[in-house]
Amino acid sequence: MNMKKNQLMALVLILIAVTSGMTSCKPKNAGNAVSSDAASKVYVAPGKYDAFYNFVSGGFSGQMSVYGLPSGRLLRVIPVFSVDPEKGWGYSEETKPMLNTSHGFVPWDDLHHVQLSKTNGEYDGRWAFGNANNTPRLARIDLKTFRTAEIIELPNSGGNHSSPFITENTEYVVAGTRFSVPPDDVNGDVPINTYKQNFKGTLSFVSVGKEDGKMEIAFQIQCPGFNFDLSRAGKGVSHGWFFFSCYNTEQANTLLEVNASQKDKDFIMAVNWKKAEEYLKAGKGRKQTVKYAHNTYSDKTHSATSEIKTEVIVLDSKELKDICYFFPCPKSPHGCDVSPTGEYIVGSGKLAALIPVFSFDKMIKAIAAKDYIGEFEGVPILKYESVLYGEVKKPGLGPLHTEFDNNGNAYTSMFVSSEVVKWNIKDLKVLDRVPTYYSVGHLCVAGGDTKTPTGKYLVAYNKITKDRYLPTGPELSQSAQLYDISGDKMQLILDFPTIGEPHYAQICPAELIKGNSLKFFKMEENKNPYFSNGEATTKVVRTGNRIDVYMTAIRSHLTPDNIEGIRMGDEVYFHVTNLEQDWDVPHGFAIKGAANAELLVMPGETQSLKWNPDRVGIFPMYCTDFCSALHQEMSGYIRVSPSGSNVPLLFSTGKNLPASDSTKK
Ligand code: K7E
Ligand code: CUA
After folding, report:
1. pLDDT at residue 260, as a whole number
2. Which of ligand 2's atoms lies nearest the C-alpha of 626?
3. Buried (b) or exposed (e) across 626-647, using 16+ Cβ within 10 A?
4. How far is residue 523's CA from residue 519's CA, in Å, rounded to a whole number?
5. Å from CA of 405 to ligand 1 middle
6. Has residue 662 got a pLDDT over 60?
């Protein structure tokens, strides 16, 4: 049954009113909702480690952050898709290529979802993946260094929200386009209202190297044009399948708020990726000319390389009938989550008043029986009742995302009614509900998307903060809330602020990662072309207008720290090698007037900063990271002379060189 347009407008307005009026309808016990033993549950004594890592998306900050749980302490911000002056990410010559795309250098993006690599359906502690929602890309973060090791751009995509989702053994990291767009190899200069004819959806299957994690676009599947929202890989019994929530099956191209909410049901799309692999092997894919960047960072050269690639193989869901199937899901599904056994698929319709739970087993039977109610652009639609396991009745308002514990329970975030609802997967009965402050988006349970969840903790990532923290102007800190879920009743035990706007996050036991941390880069393995292997090899080289300063840093001096003979019009590159071979001794480098950022150089690493002097004079430079008692002394000077000056190129540390000023001789 279709709602009338004005009815829908009314519904939308009610939802807005409910959401924005959150302070007025806030639960009465908001202040004392915390139980008396909460403090002891989150207390991690000074000098002690947290038991869990929490990897949190930064949303519009483009970064990923790492918290310790249960303390909620921020441990690190990992720069991914946005430049980060703190670490020189995107500013140093070595890291600039990481942000290269087919559009050129892109210094910002919007990171929504974090997924940890898996082996046998459990976290293996090797990599974290993140998506760029704006200029479609996937990133792989190495959990030895907590640095972004690789970024791959996705062609044929417009927005990369439905991403990244990984299979049971990290065979693939998968991405679905948010916006359908004309494919990259056709003339996209078409009227926007020809959406139905010209716009297509694309799923990208990116393979991940077993040993090195290297990503490659293995194939893409072309799908009907609408919006892909979220997804999960099947696991256990459903390994080999993917489930994507889809909205805007109305195929609207304007005022989606109303026009993409017309239908009573949208779809979940089930994708048989094992079948797709067979078709790929059988040569059923079409080679398509595209353009995308593939960037990798090497811990040996301490540099990134960016390669532009020009081809993908595309499988067509219209022709290859048994790859994709739709089944209806009520009202603009957002989250699409798979239970630990892989048997149940939970669809969360943003505007639905119930939560449908689908059965993988029933879906396979329905496919075998061709229990179709029709087709959508050549893709069969299974009957809702034939795939449905059951519905969670009256769960709350605005279900978004679901995760699971180790006791057969599910936890669903309710945006509109601002709560987390716990229900049983088997009997679909609601067991408990707790308020969130306010309007929870994603939630995550420790190991909540794995075959064997840890349970124990749940974090709600809220969209609205209102009165939870000290005011900080028009924008309040983003808010996460930690719940103890080890008992029958969920218990709020901590609020903690996050960077950017958090969307999805994952929690894994600290044991998985902490022992593998790299402590420093080995000097003897440094293959950066501008590496200085000790102070004796430092030098300043002029090649026309280009100056290369091969510099070293060690507690507590830079070598060289006096440089003369630089002229206006020169382009100066400082290649700083940190000679330390110990844990936690970075040195920084900055020079007055630099039009970029600092360098933050890890022990054994070389990083390069480009500087164009803009005036004649003396320019101080210094180490930016407080590295020793004499850190303030870790500094130097550069002299810039007019172009055409004959001041000789001189450099030194610890020698007071004779005056070389030709004008005064
Ligand atoms: Cu925030 Cu995953 Cu972009 Cu739901 S999405 S809330
Ligand atoms: Cu090196 Cu401060």
Report:
1. 86
2. 2
3. ebeeebeebebebbbbeeebeb
4. 12
5. 21
6. no
Ligand located closest to 580 CA = 2
Strands of 227-233's sheet in order across: 227-233, 241-247, 265-272, 324-330, 379-382, 372-376
Q: Is 551 in the pocket of ligand 2 (CB under 6 A)?
A: no
pTM of the model: 0.94
Alpha helices for 292-444 (secondary structure H):
360-368, 384-387
pLDDT, one tens digit per residue, over 140-168 is 999 999 999 999 999 999 999 999 999 99
What count of Cα atoms within 13 Å lies in the side-chain half-sphere of residue 506? 25
CB of 623 within 6 A of ligand 2: the answer is: yes
Using the atom order of ligand 1, give the atom closest to the CA of residue 401. Answer: 4
- The predicted pLDDT at position 34 comes to 72
Q: Atom of ligand 2 at shortest distance to CA of 631? A: 2
**Centroid of ligand 2 to alpha carbon of 554 (angstroms):** 7
pLDDT at 661: 54
Whether the CB of 587 sits within 6 Å of ligand 2: yes
Residue 646 has pLDDT above 90, yes or no: yes
The torsion angles phi and psi of 584, rounded to 5 degrees, stand at: 65, 35
556 C-alpha to ligand 2 centroid (Å): 6
Distance 642 CA to ligand 1 centre (A): 55
pLDDT in tens, 228-243: 999 999 999 999 999 9
- pLDDT at residue 27 tops 50: no
Q: How many residues does the chain have?
A: 665
- Over residues 173-196, the mean pLDDT reads 96
| Backbone torsion region of residue 170, taken as left when φ is above 0, otherwise alpha when ψ lies between -120 and 50, otherwise beta | left
Distance from the CA of 134 to the center of ligand 1, in angstroms? Answer: 14
Ligand with an atom nearest the CA of residue 576: 2
